[in-house]
Amino acid sequence: MAMAYTPGLKRKDIFLVRKTRRLPIPGEVIVKKGDKVTHTDTLATTNVPGNAQLMNCADLLGLLPDDRTGSCDFKQYMLKKEGDKIEKGEMIALKKEFFGLIKRPLMSPLTGSIELISDSSGQLILREPPVKVNINSYIPGTIAEVIPNEGATIECIAAFIQGIFGIGGETFGEIKVMAKSPEEVLSAEQITAEYAGKILIGGSMVTIEALQKAVEVGVKGIVVGGIEEDTINKFLGYRIGVAITGEEEKGITLIVTEGFSKMNMSDGTFNLLAKFNGKLACISGATQIRAGVIRPEIIIPRDDIDEKTIGKIGREDEIPTEGMRPGLPIRIIREPYFGAIGRVSSLPVELQIVETESEVRVLEAELANGKKVIVARANVELIEE
Amino acid sequence: MSRNPKDIKIILATDCGSTTSKARFFKKIGDEYRFVAAGEAPTTVEAPYEDVTFGVSNAIREVEELTGHKILGPNGIISPSKGDNEGVDIYVTTSSAGGGLQMMVTGVIKSMTAESAERAALGAGAIVEDVIAIDDGRKSYEEIERIRFLRPDMILVAGGTDGGTISHIAQIAEYIRAADPRPRLGTEFKLPVLFAGNITARPEVQKILGEKFALSMTDNIRPTIDTENPEPARNAVHELFMVHVMSHAPGYDKLMKWTPIPIMPTPAGEGKMIRTNGEGLNINVIGVGLGGATTNVYSVFDGKFVRTVSANLGMSYSICNVLKETGIKNITRWLPFEISEMEILNSLYNKMIRPTTIPQTLNELLIEHAVAREALRMGFQHHKSLARPLLGVAHVGTMGVGTGGKSWSESYIDMLKMDRLGATGGLLSHGPRRAQTMLILIDGFGVEGSTMLFQDSIFMMPHLGVLSTVHPEAAIQIFDKDCVVRLGTCIAPKGTFEKDEGQNVATITLSMPNGETITEDMKYGTMKKIPLKDGESAQMDIKPERGFDMGQGPGHRVSKKIEGGVVGLILDARGRPIVMPEDDSERRKKLGEWFIALQAYPGFP
Q1: Looking at the partner chain, which of B174, B201, B323 has a beta carbon nearest the beta carbon of A123?
Q2: Could you tell me the residue ranges of all domains in chain B?
Q3: Which of B150-154, B233-237, B589-593 has the highest mean pLDDT?
Q4: pLDDT tens digit string along B166-225?
Q5: Using an 8 Å Cβ cutoff, are A74 and A57 in contact?
Q6: Distance in angstroms (rounded) separating the CA atoms of residues B246 and B405
Q7: Domain region containing A333
Q8: How many helices (H) and strands (E) does chain B have?
Q9: Residue pair B379/B291 in contact by the 8 Å Cβ criterion
């Protein structure tokens, strides 16, 4: 049979994380291969063209462009030409009427340059000065590769956990495990000013009040098992339509590891996070389900591990080669049994009819409580440990 | 294609979908081309694979294993065939992987040239991210920010009739230049811009956009106010799609070497088959592709073909956008069981974040089917907003001329005159019972009069669409024999009563193929299924009550031959538009009655 695989969310105690960081447009890379970087170091820099503003010069000077011929005789009033630098408030055009008694000046609304003087529309394109954009390393590590004019790839040995959904961009902070067990709900009462700058680890859910309080006291991030859709809706002020997130500017990054509704964080994830209580974590809530899958992530740099001492370790960019087979740990990701953790016990070849009457490929799983259940193969994911 | 079509015996077609790559294998058996086998595998455009040909090869390998026919060699697909069991004579493919073709279009007047540009881009199978026009109500800085934010694959610039306005076209071109948007794929490439507006504005457009963009020009989409000429722009879009977009997508350089036939966007392939069907039989047809990310609607009505792609109305990636657009109440109204809004929301959001999962419980299936009805309804609304007469054209005499008595801003699509309605896409093709697909289509489109419904058997319409560009005979034969599953005919008089008191809507007499005559009073608010097999037909004579219309005007008798299908005939006396009881328990009871009448779901026997 053709290669079948069911990629799952990664949860690794030791992992070689590789992050390629690219500039939005070509620029200068200021690191070289082999350099050691911290998570806040700048890797590359560029100048992005500044914002443009259109100015209808002809209108403002009281001229009407000749629509048919495309000519608009306003260039004679321009005091500047294409490419000239301009200052905010500087006169850039002047029309004199009634033998010079009435003057119509045109002042620049910005500092920058004149990009285009359009005969046909009577418009000017004024461009603000370029904006300097830097990209930072996001994670500490070693520069493994430099992409000339574009960016660099950093390698970092770390614990690595993927969430299923998140909001908010990249941030970092010290891990603080708040929940005593994966069942606990993170509530507003637990969050105080002492957690400013921290990444809080909850259990099965976070309430809207807790999220708001966390923003108020300056918490950098929250990681929980589940969340009600209603909480996200209230927190963002709008309902998410498609799962493309990461640009939200709510002052906090939220990562959900299991799904929507109250859901216990899986024991494996909870225990792994608990193991690193007090350590630095670099996290991102960016999620994109379609066209380039991006899942939220928690990266906990392992300065206690040296690559030479551990032999081959998994890499973030490795291609999964292993399909589903008996014995592998799985998570059920759809009703019934949603959220249950178990192991594959058998993979029947024949299609089976499920409650909906659909004939589907199934597997038999033994759940953590010993119960054996039949589930559609499309409804489980491998736990990649 | 240089080979004689008669020498073509073995055909392979693939579709690289956003989630799954699907291979379909066809052979000439005797004098007919027939479907032989299918293979599917996850699409591999994304990291860590970043090579579409991995997924395509995996799907083809499944075909090889099922048929014993060797297709893949060390350098890709073996072609031409060598004997009966090795190689293929034609390989064609469509693609919507990586988000398909995403375009932005511009025009001068929103309801005229901008709308023509939108139709042309949609006709080329694109997802239109935004339509920019001088009169769209946005300020120049808002237009610029929007263009900059979108990062489309391509921009289509229209505007002006030939010899008409130049200044407004220049103004829009200046917005684009000021925004300086980057292409979605690759940072080093220039973004393709296609100008299809006033030909006398070309020098100006060249001056403004020529340096910063990969600018090309084609014939004006709207050369005069009363003509629309979308074909040159559509063809140019396809060419640019291949040269500028596909060639930068991961692995497509390799895939393009496997086939000399241009890769077609999936919706373009799907629509081509619907169009071939409608035009070939000279009938009015609507087709719909309900995908994971988009809803594509196609119509051939009185010979006019229109295709729309509703981005973000889909059943997996975009399922929550359907919810957001329609509102939770419109989803709940289709559910025959009690459930809290929070449970529905969580269920749909969990589907969004794990889009490849399938419903295993009946309740989850019913929730997805409820969303499907709303996605179809909204996708069709969007379609009708573009399937309308050219605005700006003076119509002779009353609005009735050429518009079927409708206002000139209304769609010309009249459901009472629709002959067929066909569907494809995962959810509709894989419904556990065919009656479910039929009911979803009837509800989603609000089918009126008598309409034959069909569905794609296993999702092969895009494959056949691209095949039809090089071997139309094979495509049509396979479409008729193996692709189309005839569901049956829906008979639904248009009209409503103020109250549901079990009144008579119409009296129908059916002369069945076995000689039997069936006469039924269609009672308001009810549905009934009458068996009439695929390949069979019956003579229908229907007399609607006053206020109800079957296509000949309210109260007027209609007689015609109607076709059966795997579901049969559906007598739908719910009225149009369908009105649900306001009381929740009454509504659920009613839904249950309809499900029972159609034997649509287990638990509603």
Answers
A1: B174
A2: 5-97, 100-258, 270-598
A3: B589-593
A4: 888 998 999 999 888 877 766 667 899 999 999 999 999 999 999 989 999 999 999 998
A5: yes
A6: 44
A7: 329-382
A8: 17, 24
A9: no
Please answer whether residues A52 and A118 qualify as being in contact, where contact means their C-beta atoms are separated by less than 8 angstroms. Answer: no
CB contact under 8 A, B65 and A1: yes
Residue A322 lies inside a defined structural domain of this protein = no
ipTM, interface predicted TM-score of the complex: 0.87
Closest-CA distance of chain B to residue A167, Å: 13
Same domain (yes/no): A180, A114? no
Class of domain B100-258: alpha beta
B41 contact residues in A (CB cutoff 8 A): 2-4
The arithmetic mean of pLDDT across residues B51-59, rounded, is: 90
Q: What number of other Cβ atoms are within 10 A of residue A317's Cβ? A: 13
Each residue of B296-346: pLDDT tens digit?
999 999 998 888 888 778 998 889 999 999 999 999 999 999 999 999 999
SS3 call for B268: helix
Q: Which residue has the higher pLDDT, B313 or A309?
A: B313
Which residues between 329 and 388 in chain B have a beta carbon less than 8 angstroms from any beta carbon of chain A?
342-343, 345-347, 349-350, 352-365
Neighbours of A102 (CB within 10 A): 9
Q: Are residues A275 and A262 in the same domain?
A: yes
Inter-chain residue contact A121 with B167, CB threshold 8 Å: yes
Q: Which CATH number fits domain B5-97: 3.10.20.370, 1.10.357.10, 3.90.850.10, 3.90.380.10?
A: 3.10.20.370
Q: What is the pLDDT of residue A320?
A: 57
Domain count for chain A: 4
Residue A3: pLDDT band with limits 50, 70, 90: very low
Tell whether A197 and A272 lie within a shared domain: yes
